[in-house]
Each structure stands twice: as structure tokens, then as C-alpha cells.
Design goal:
This protein is α/β, with parallel strands linked by helices. The chain has 2 domains: about 1-325, Rossmann fold (3-Layer(aba) Sandwich), CATH 3.40.50.12780; about 330-415, ANL, C-terminal domain (GMP Synthetase, Chain A, domain 3), CATH 3.30.300. It is built from 11 helices and 19 strands. The chain has helices at about 10-15, 20-40, 45-50, 75-80, 115-130, 150, 165-175, 185-200, 215-225, 340-345, 375-390; strands spanning about 95-100, 110, 140, 160, 180-185, 205-210, 230-235, 240-245, 255, 260-265, 275-285, 295-305, 315-320, 330, 335, 350-360, 365-370, 395-400, 415. Strands 4-3-5-6-7-8-9-13-12-11-10 form an 11-stranded mixed sheet, sandwiched between helices. The chain has a 4-stranded mixed sheet with strand order 18-17-16-19. The protein is globular, with a radius of gyration of 22 Å.
Length: about 425
């Protein structure tokens, strides 16, 4: 196996600059191995290949994937009854992760240590290509993660602040740390911007890394003005880890082509051309314990109109219509994390899909697309769960609808905050 194929650092770091045909050969080999593993060891895919009338040995590479159907999250989640994990896996030795559930469907993912660290290496490489240096300290505002041996030795160090802290405590934690690069969800940075002012610029940050939510052009401008440095956006999903990242050279988003095979499809299932938008379908190339073959993420992206002469030669998109969720401002200077709402509602019996809309500072409406048998008891449970999260003085209403309206070509904005005047504590 050559350094290009393996995970030697020399070959791994060269891949983004390699000729597209070499990267496609690499993808072909990974797809071929993935299909055979899935059909042989994963009960769900054994049935899936059989129903598609395709033998795994007939999948010789990326071009053959089109012979298989596209899987959406609902279909994949229903496969857990058959078995989505490779037979013979010792689950106790695996990392267990769950998708955020921002589309209303929560998906469980298992990865071996080797798979997880491989995906981490792809993200780290993209950060290095975006300006990160081994001696830089990153501050990550989010949910808890784990540190590798390299972090403990002082290379690619990061500090961590829990995004679920009360606002004043979160702000104090951030201002009490020294760091070179800030990494956080765009909505969380927007929450903090009014209080940062000159203080943020005085930190002399090198970069701001955003991800997990849609970054609008207006918010990007405001963050860059406040921080005095460039914002670099990363596009990922828990099921895949990194899918694409914004290039500081050409301004487009490069797919992580040696980590994921990405298809952008028109409504008829054909491949979108340059400058065309379509739904994103991915095949992670390093997920063999819980494979995801032709898995529809649920986002709409647009292929770049043409190349810009970038040294990085991975495939490109120029627009993402992805997950948009807001932090909810509450009376008295409190804030409610959208992740807390999502985690609560996605596990509520009787709820197929939902949307949370804050209609005023102290009013929240939960729109529910119900499953069969949803009744007053279920509605009461939803209301009490959200009331408990929102705290005293916030009125919660539950409205049941046969179908939640969806904007054309986009996801529902799952959590929508009110942006009027809120009294600060």
C-alpha cells in the first residue's frame, strides 16, 4: 500500500493537492471494500442489496453506486430492527455517537478507535489548510469532547467551554482563557457578539472556525468585524464528521474527497452539473462498523460553477442550505440552547417531527407533526418538557399540525428564536 493510499502523514497531507483521477482511484477502492463488508456483515445492508437486485461484488467503485437506492434518515433509522452494526463487533470497544436530530430523526453511529481517529485526522488537516499551526491554542465552545495524546503533549492544543453554561458563566469562561483560534457554532457566536465589542478584537485572534449550523453572509461579516480576522466555515455531520470546508485560497467549499464520496442530485436522481443545486447524498469511506451507503443528509448544496485555479483539487460546492437553529433569548438575560430542546423533543413518544418557534420574549410555540395515537397526554408531556427547560415566566403552547410547512429546497428551521428586545440581566 502506497503512502497515498495509507495514513502516512506524507501521503495523507498530499491528497488534497493530488490529481482528481488519483483521488477517484482511492475512492473506488474504498467503495468496493465498503460494499463487500456491508453486504457480508451488516443485516440491514444484506437485505438492502438483495432488494436492489445487486451483488456487492458488482460494486467496483463510485460509478456503480448509482445502481443502489438512496437512503434517507427515516429509512436508515428503521433498519435498526434488522441490525445496522457489523456482526461480530464488540460495541463496548467502540465510540458511540448520535446525530443531532435536527431533521427530527436521530441516528446512532458506532466507530472503532481507528475509524474515529481517521476522521479526526481529516478535520485536523482541513484546519491546518485553513491556518491552524501546531503551536496554536484553540478554544472550542460546544459539548464535551476527548483529548488525544498529541493534545496532552502540547501539540494542536485546545481549551473547552461547555455551551450549556448560563450566559454570564459562559462569557466569564471565554474571557478567562487565552487562545489563538475560536471554534463555535455561528448562532452561539451571534449570542456573544453584543458583549464582546473591543474585547474580542484585543485578543488578536488568527481565525474563527464555525460549523454545525448555517453561516449567513451578514453574520460572517459581523463576526469578522468584531474579531478582526477571517472566519472559516466547516461543513460536517455527526454521521460523517467532516464533509467539506471553506477554502482560504479560493473561497469555495472543498469536499473531503478522501473521507466521503459526495453526490449532488437533482430531483430526478441524476447528478447536478456545475452551478446547479441538489440534495446531498454521501457515502463515508471510513465507516465500516456502521456503514452508510448513499445516505441522504437532508441538506441542499450547489455545485461550484467552475474551477478557480486552486492548488487544492478536491471537488467543490459554493453554497450550503443546511441546518439553521437559534439560541432563544429569555427574560432576565437567560438563554436556552437549541440543542437542549432538540435532545428533549426528539425522544418524546408520539412526535414524528417538530418545530419550536419563539413568538415573543416569554412565549414559545411547539409545532408537532404527530404519529398515530398522539393525544392530550403526549401534548402535555411536550409542553411540560419545554416549560422545564425554559423556566419560570415563559408560556409554552403546543400546536398539532398534520404537516409542518417546509420552505422549497430547504430544511425546516427547527428552532426559531424571537429577535425583539429582551431585558438583559
Amino acid at each position: 500500500m502506497s503512502g497515498f493510499d495509507g495514513l502516512s502523514w506524507a501521503g495523507f497531507l498530499r491528497r488534497p493537492f493530488a490529481a482528481p483521477e488519483r483521488v477517484r482511484e482511492y475512492q473506488d477502492r474504498r467503495v468496493q471494500a465498503l460494499a463487500r463488508q456491508a453486504a457480508a456483515r451488516v443485516p440491514f445492508y444484506r437485505r438492502w442489496f438483495r432488494e436492489a437486485g445487486v451483488r456487492a461484488e458488482e460494486i467496483g467503485g463510485v460509478a456503480d453506486l448509482k445502481r443502489l437506492p438512496v437512503l434517507n434518515k427515516t429509512e436508515y433509522a428503521r433498519g435498526k430492527a434488522e441490525g445496522l452494526v457489523a456482526e461480530g463487533t464488540d460495541e463496548r470497544r467502540c465510540f458511540e455517537l448520535y446525530s443531532s436530530g435536527t431533521t427530527g430523526e436521530r441516528v446512532r453511529i458506532l466507530r472503532t478507535r481507528a475509524e474515529e481517529y481517521t476522521l479526526y485526522a481529516h478535520r485536523l488537516r482541513a484546519q491546518m489548510l485553513s491556518g491552524l499551526r501546531p503551536w496554536d491554542v484553540r478554544l472550542r465552545i460546544g459539548l464535551p469532547g476527548h483529548k488525544t495524546r498529541a493534545h496532552r503533549l502540547g501539540v494542536f492544543r485546545f481549551e473547552f467551554v461547555n455551551e450549556e453554561l448560563p450566559f454570564e458563566a459562559l462569557r466569564a469562561e471565554v474571557f478567562g482563557k487565552h487562545f489563538d483560534i475560536l471554534g463555535a457554532k455561528p448562532g452561539l457566536i451571534e449570542l456573544l457578539l453584543p458583549d464582546w465589542g473591543e474585547r474580542l478584537r484585543g485578543m488578536k485572534l488568527k481565525r474563527v472556525f464555525t460549523g454545525a449550523e448555517l453561516l449567513t453572509g451578514d453574520l460572517r461579516r459581523r463576526i469578522e468585524e468584531a474579531a478582526g480576522c477571517r472566519v472559516v466555515d466547516f461543513y460536517g455531520a455527526m454521521e460523517v464528521n467532516l464533509m467539506a470546508w471553506e477554502c482560504v485560497r479560493c473561497g469555495l467549499y472543498h469536499f473531503c474527497d478522501d473521507g466521503v464520496c459526495a453526490e449532488v442530485l437533482r430531483e430526478d436522481g441524476s447528478e447536478a452539473g456545475p452551478g446547479e443545486a441538489g440534495r446531498l447524498v454521501v457515502t463515508p469511506l471510513h465507516s465500516f462498523i456502521t456503514p452508510m451507503i448513499r445516505y441522504e443528509i437532508g441538506d441542499v448544496v450547489r455545485r461550484a460553477a467552475g474551477p478557480r485555479g486552486c492548488a487544492i483539487r478536491f471537488s467543490t460546492i459554493d453554497r450550503i442550505e443546511g441546518r439553521t437553529i437559534d439560541y432563544l433569548p429569555l427574560p432576565g438575560g437567560r438563554w436556552l440552547s437549541p440543542i437542549r430542546l432538540i435532545e428533549t423533543l426528539q425522544n418524546t413518544p408520539g412526535v414524528r417531527r417538530y418545530q419550536v418557534v419563539q413568538t415573543a420574549a416569554a412565549e414559545i410555540e411547539v409545532r408537532v407533526e404527530p404519529e398515530e395515537g398522539f393525544g392530550e397526554e403526549h401534548a402535555g408531556r411536550v409542553r411540560r418538557s419545554v416549560e422545564e427547560l425554559a423556566g419560570e415566566g415563559v408560556r409554552v403552547q403546543v400546536r398539532v399540525a398534520e404537516r409542518i410547512a417546509r420552505p422549497p429546497g430547504r430544511k425546516v428551521k427547527l428552532v426559531e428564536a424571537w429577535r425583539g428586545e429582551v431585558q438583559r440581566g
